[in-house]
Amino acid sequence: MNKEKFIAYIKKLGVAGFLFFLIKGLLWLIIPAMIFFFEC
Asked: How far apart (Å, rounded) are the C-alpha atoms in residues 26 and 20?
């Protein structure tokens, strides 16, 4: 595996990881808010 391919792979992994944690973080905020909203 050459260096350029490796760097491209790491960048793809970084973007995927960032999106995963972004969505997970948003769900952690949205789900309790939805529960609270619909309980009241």
From this structure: 10
Phi and psi for 5 in degrees, rounded to 5? -65, -40
DSSP state of 40: -
pTM of the full predicted structure?
A: 0.56
Residue 10, judged by CB atoms within 10 A of its CB (0-12, 13-18, 19+), counts as exposed
Instruction: Print pLDDT tens along the chain (40 aa).
Output: 688 998 898 888 899 999 999 999 999 999 999 999 998 7
CA-to-CA dists, residue 6 to 11, 13, 30, 34, angstroms: 9, 11, 36, 41
